[in-house]
Predict the 3D structure of the following.
Amino acid sequence: MSRSLKKANELLFDLIKMRFDVSIDDHDNTFNHPRWVWGDNIDQKWLCEVKFKDRLKITQEAVFSIAEFEGDEYFVVTGFSIPDNIPQALMPCSLNPGLFVGVIYEFELPVLKNISNDQLVQNILSQHKNLVGYEGHELNDLLKIFPNIFVMKISGQYLYSTNQRKHQQLIAHYLSINKKFINLPFSNDTLEAISNLVLLDSKILKYENIIQALLSFQFKFAFLDLYRCIEMLYQIVYINEPYNNIFSKKGSITKLEFLEKIEFSLNWRPNERNTLNKIFEETPGEYKKRIKIAAQAIDGQAKANSNWLYDLRCSIVHLKANHREFELTPYQWDKIILGTVDMLLYWYSEYINFE
């Protein structure tokens, strides 16, 4: 279904008028005159036909989305500055008036908070249909008052074309290679490790947890989101071998279906602490070296590293008097998170095609 040119333009200028502070200034009788964004036939076609298939709204201004137009896909990012790095197979492209209006209309992006009444009147609201020679507003005038919109065309060599959750995977990769978008002072090693984890193209990795970790404002919550990726493995590390023994040849039931039947039919869930210990024991030394060093640097008595890590997790999740409290510096948190990602790299490589 095509988008209405009239309704999309009306909403855009309604958003502008919403920013006008009537407690400071009165508007004149031209305030509600019709206005629109100038565009040629191709721009109008973009506005009518572009589809936004996926979207993730971080804040009112910050939104990620995949747009589709005439068979091509575009990665649209709003509310962030121009990136320092762009994922492979993405090509920056210019923002045309039709796509601009479509983005504002679909996401209802607000006018920037620092825009004054005088700026709105002088640069935007003073132009309207009843003025002689008015053909529509210029895109460049409107770009100055809305959050930044950055558009990249996705080529046929898109790295995640086989992954059904490619949108979130792309967002996670985009954030991990642009340090200036990250709130916490992660080291370059940690961000590189997270980027490598995303690029594994795992079918079971929850990229939403990676995104939340990267956008966290506190290290403990970033750690907790990454720890949830370990929790995803709790049942898998137990059922993979029985499945392979029972179904020596690929049968009518997938591993995920097998796991669901065991969980819901038998109500079976492994003990968390014991399972984390199993994961630790079966992780090759090179993949748990950094987590062990980090834990021992914080607590020299941290000999049972799986128990130490589980206690760290519980200290964040549960508010109980008998749980140990941890006070970590940003440097220590970064090292713990790096070690956690190392373990995730191993295990999600092991189960990269688990389905």
